[in-house]
Write a structure and sequence with these properties.
This protein is mostly helical. It has 14 helices and no strands.
Length: 296
């Protein structure tokens, strides 16, 4: 019987579900006036330290290869720093559920980048799935904009940069994965490499970085760190055995979780076009999943 960490679909569901919790947790943190860079830095620092100790006791300790620091810094910037800052910045404006939908677009963008760069490019069914995903995204953006008024449109456009960075990170990690390094150690170093950049961004933006703010929300902070640590523990293993396109589908699971939490816990309203668009996006993932098993 396979272990949990050897089953791609189990990792996909687990990673996506814990990722989906980031959006409602982030919305609650922003409501407490926690600066987005501080919240993102706490996530990366907490998860990075936890993963470091987990890696020490559960993974072989090989000699660290040349270029590992470069991998951690580049991966951290495009995979965590930019997406986290964007996510926690737009959540107060577009809602946690809509931020989750932005993550759901990452498989579409990952497939496009794979096609352009020749990294396991999609076949005809995959291209059809991409078209469905883009159409579904257009419906979602249109529905949310029409329901909330024209003022939200710029925030939605900013949110659309999230899947671009996520997709770039998915492809980069597969191309540059250092040989002989375990997924937990890579997850740790990538997260820790993100922290200085997030703190520097906060200082440049003049954000409040008082750690006392975090002590006002100990339960939320603990829940966020637990979810993030669990997510990153699975995330890099999924990347290792599933590849960038399969990994990117965690966005769909995350979107489903965040939409449901946003609707049920926060009373976020989504017009019919948003739900129709979400359904079309899931149809797109069905086609792209099928495409992976079909000949070109």
């Amino acid at each position: 019987m396979k272990k949990f960490y050897d089953i791609p679909v189990a990792l996909l569901l687990g990673t996506g579900a814990t990722l989906g919790l980031n959006f409602p947790f982030g919305k609650l943190a922003m409501a407490e006036h926690i600066a987005p860079p501080l919240w993102a830095a706490v996530i990366s620092l907490g998860a990075g330290l936890a993963l470091f100790f987990i890696a020490k006791v559960s993974e072989p300790q090989p000699e660290l290869p040349v270029g590992l620091a470069r991998f951690a810094i580049i991966s951290g910037l495009i995979s965590y720093v930019a997406p986290n800052l964007l996510t926690f910045t737009v959540i107060p404006k577009i809602g946690s559920g809509m931020a989750g939908i932005m993550f759901a677009l990452s498989p579409v963008v990952t497939a496009v980048l794979s096609l352009l760069l020749g990294v396991r490019p999609p076949n005809k069914f995959g291209l059809i799935g991409i078209a469905f995903g883009l159409f579904g995204a257009a419906l979602i953006v249109w529905g949310k904009t029409s329901a909330a008024g024209p003022g939200i449109s710029l925030w939605l456009l900013l949110g659309l940069a999230i899947p671009l960075f996520l997709a770039a990170g998915n492809v980069y990690r597969s191309l540059a994965w250092p040989k002989g390094v375990g997924p937990k150690l890579l997850g740790s170093l990538t997260n820790l490499a993100s922290v200085p950049f997030l703190v520097a961004i906060a200082l440049v933006l003049g954000e409040r970085l008082d750690l006392a703010d975090l002590m006002r929300i100990p339960v939320l902070l603990t829940a966020q760190l637990a979810a993030s640590t669990a997510m990153f523990t699975m995330f890099f293993r999924l990347q290792q055995i599933g590849g960038p396109t399969y990994l990117s589908q965690i966005g769909y699971v995350a979107a489903a979780v965040s939409l449901l939490v946003g609707f049920s816990a926060f009373g976020e309203y989504y017009p019919a076009s948003v739900w129709i668009g979400a359904a079309i996006i899931f149809l797109g993932i069905g086609l792209t999943t099928y495409s992976a098993r079909s000949p070109k």
